[in-house]
Structure formats: C-alpha cells, structure tokens
Amino acid sequence: MDYFEYRNGELFCEDVPVKTVAKKVGTPLYLYSYGTFERHFLVFDGAFRNIPHLACYSLKANSNGALVRTIAKLGGGADIVSGGELHRAIMGGIPARKIVYSGVGKSEQELRLAIEAGILMINIESEGEFLLLKKLSRKMRRKVPVSIRVNPEIDPKTHPYITTGLKKNKFGVLWSEASRLYREIAAEENLVPVGISSHIGSQILELGPFIEAVTSLRSMILELKEQGIAVEMLDIGGGLGITYKDEMPPRPDEYAGVVEDKLRDMGIRLILEPGRVLVGNSGIFVTKMLYVKRTQGKTFYIVDGAMNDLVRPSLYDAYHEIIPVVEAAGKTAAADIVGPICESGDFLAKDRQLAEVKEGDLLAVKSAGAYGFSMSSNYNSRMRAAEVLVRGSEFFVVRKRETLKDLTRGESIPSFLEV
Ligand code: LLP
User: Fold this and answer.
1) Ligand 1 pocket test: which of 54, 60, 171, 247 has the largest number of ligand atoms within 8 Å of its C-beta?
2) C-beta 313 within 6 A of ligand 1
3) Which of 150, 210, 281, 297 is most buried (most C-beta within 10 Å)?
4) What are the DSSP E strand ranges found in 133-282?
C-alpha cells in the first residue's frame, strides 16, 4: 500500500503531481511520500503490539534527516552501522537509549562515540571487537550494554550479496564461539550482556527462514539462561521483503505472528531492525528521457538518472518497475533504459516493455526509497540528486541537489602543482 497513483492519467505522490515537483526541482530526483512511510512504520510497529518491542529503523536503507526525524516522532529507534549513522540518528532526535549498533568493522573511535552516547546495545561481531570493547569500557569506566550478533547458519533464500546468516558470510559469530564469548562478557565487570542478535539477510520473501532463526535464537537464550546469563533483549534484525514486481512477501502481521509464537513465554523484549519494508515503497526515483537511440534491433531510452543515483539494477540485477509520469497509451515496445555513465553496466532496466515515450518525458522508477539515495555516489563526477518529501498537497526539498562546488569540496592541490 502506497500513495503513488495515477489521477486522470498523471502520476501523483499523495496530492502532488510528480510533474510539478520535477519542474520545480529538476531531475533526477528522489521523491518520498511521508504518508506512506508513516503508515508503513505504524503498521509494522503495530503488528508487534502484543509483545514488548522496539522497532529500530535501519538507517542504511535511507538516512535522510527528514525520514529519521519521522521515526523519532513516531517513537521508533534506530539501527546503525557506523559513526556517521550514529550522528544522523542523534541529529534526527532518536534517543540514544533507542539505538542499536551492528557492523563487522566498528572502529575504536566509533565504539567510543557509541559508548559516550549511551546507546541501547552494541552488537559484537567478532572476538577482536569484544577485546576492544573490554579495553574501552575499562578505560572509559562505563558500563557497556552488549549483545553478540550470532550467525545462525540459515539460508534466507535471497540474493547472495544480501545474504548474511550463512557460515561463509563475514557477519556475526558462530554459536560455538558466541557461547564462550558470552561467558567472558559476563565475567567482565563493565560489559553487560543484555541481548542476543541476528540478521540473516534482506528482501526475504518467506516466513520459513525467520521461523528457523527465531527458533534457534530461542534455544540459545535458554542455553545462556542455564549458564546464569539472562539476556533481556532479542534483536532479530531486519530483512522483511517488499513487492518490486510480483513478489508476495509475508505481511508484517504474519511475520509478527510467527515471531510472537516462539517468544510468548520468554519474557523478552524484542528488537527489530526494519529498513526496506518501511521505506522501499515510500519512494520513487524520477528521471527524464534525454534521447531515444535506436540501433539495429535495439532501442535505448537514455535518461538523466544513472547507476550513481540508483545502483541496485547494476549491482544486484534488481528489478524496479518503471512507469511514465504521464500515462502513455498505445502499444508497448521493449527498450533498455540506460543512464549517461560510461559503463555498459549502467542501466535501470533491460528489455523492458514500456509504452512509447519520447524525449523530455518523465519516468518514475518505483520502489526506490530503500538503498537508492543511500547507495548513491558521485561517479563520473555527477552531482547527487535532490530528495523531496511530499506530505498531502505540500512538498519539501529535504536534500538539495548537489552543486559543482560540492563536487570538489575538500579537495586541494598540493603546492608543487600550483601554477
Ligand atoms: N540489520 C542489519 C544488521 C542489516 O545488515 C540490515 C541490512 C538491516 C538490518 C536492514 O535490512 P532490511 O530490513 O532493509 O532488509 N543494498 C541492498 C540491501 C543490503 C542490506 C544490508 N543489511 C539492496 O539494495 O538490496
């Protein structure tokens, strides 16, 4: 359910015509629907109303300040993976006590900042990180609430690049090692083992892998209890999939149902780290047709958006629905929708059936709210796109399009090259 729809043949985001925003702000641009994002959070969070829980929005999916602020306003927390995301979460108004920190390579400085801020839980992902935290907690004389991110060795049946809970993945700690680490943590005065965490992958479309993960985490919690280690929080990560094309992901209430089922008698506080399910279908990417190029037997629609703006098609072969902003009638034809970047891998879609569009027309790439802008870059010295948030009949630029000045900010010419 989202608030992007055609009205009289024209695409609207809530009550704002997409064309109006493109005209005002230019293209390419990301357009987010506040109402959709808010609704997704409330539905997801509400699905877990029967158990104590905290939904920590996964900032990596989209860390725009306006979205983070929305989550803060709705009472959600944040799942972060870097010092930068810690900064964004705090700037967005998320209380430190609602922030959880995962990540295989947290630096000493990042851990320090997290300890100073007093976040809810640091998810340890290796023995080395445990040793560093032990040292820091002593030096800083602070009690540090930690959990271990265990690798439950479960196949989430998703794209290999976004599978995280298999033995061959770099994430988490295998249970055999984790249970030993828990004992060491418990013996350490300043480290408090408050939780256990896992995240098995992203864009998961079946309940099975979640059930398996929670079942195995449940038995780990019980095993810890036997050893006198009572963790109070279970963090099951994110990963719930969304519809890009015709996928039928479990609904949040179905997901909540199976999780709740396994945890009812455990007296545990559930931590969730949803990213894509909240923001994926809350955003579109709007791009303009520059040229129609026909070569022998092939049509290319060359648009002003590229892989630096939205890398998912190039990187994961991901499918994003693409529709014209002004509904086009007539027959469809297959075309590759490609950007201006000097790489054959720069495409938004291949062999896509689209009603014939012409130069100057606008296209909307759907489901682009998650891992769209947050994965964008300046490759080919392209300036990153503007981001706009729509609420009802109003729209707000929540990130300006970058300028030429932004491109070279921070660079300097060494004196020997000065003319
Ligand atoms: N928690 C942890 C520890 C994670 O690693 C992730 C995502 C999440 C939560 C949020 O997962 P979500 O609910 O969004 O599935 N760039 C890829 C997705 C990478 C996901 C990485 N981890 C894509 O565009 O599909």
Assistant:
1) 60
2) no
3) 150
4) 144-151, 173-174, 191-197, 233-235, 269-272
What structural domains does the chain harbor?
A: 4-32+281-408 (2.40.37.10), 33-279 (3.20.20.10)
The closest-lying atom of ligand 1 relative to the alpha carbon of residue 315 is 24
Q: What is the pLDDT of residue 166?
A: 67
User: Which sequence positions are flagged as catalytic?
Assistant: 342
Residue with tokens 């790489």: 343
> Ligand 1 pocket: which of 41, 44, 45, 58 to mutate (most atoms <8 Å of CB)?
58
Q: Per mean pLDDT, which range of 165-179, 227-241, 303-317, 386-400 is the poorest?
A: 165-179
Residues 6+ away with beta carbon under 8 Å from 395: 13, 16, 20, 21, 388, 389
Nearest residue (CA) to ligand 1, atom 19: 162
Instruction: Report d(CA 64, CA 209) in Å as an integer.
Output: 30
CB of 61 within 6 A of ligand 1: the answer is yes
* Mean pLDDT within 340-344: 96
Residue closest by Cα to atom 24 of ligand 1 = 371
What pLDDT is attached to residue 156?
76
What CA–CA distance (Å, rounded) separates 243 from 408? 38
Angle at which helix 175-186 crosses helix 127-140, to 10 degrees, equals: 10
Whole-model pTM: value is 0.97
User: Which residue, by CA, sits nearest to atom 6 of ligand 1?
Assistant: 238
pLDDT tens digits, one per residue of 96-143: 999 999 999 999 999 999 999 999 999 999 999 999 999 999 999 999
Closest CA to 123 of 237, 262, 215: 237
Query: Which atom of ligand 1 has the smallest separation from the CA of 123?
Result: 3
> Which residues, listed in sequence order, are joined to residue 98 by a DSSP beta bridge?
none
148/150 Cα distance (integer angstroms) = 6
The string of pLDDT tens digits covering residues 351-386 is 999 988 899 999 999 999 999 999 999 999 999 999
Laid out side by side, the sheet with 16-17 consists of 4-7, 10-13, 16-17
Residue 69's contacts (CB-CB under 8 Å, 6 or more residues apart) are: 92, 93
Q: How far is CA 228 from CA 182, 189, 216, 223, 307, in A?
A: 11, 15, 19, 9, 51
Residue 369 Cβ < 6 Å to ligand 1 = no
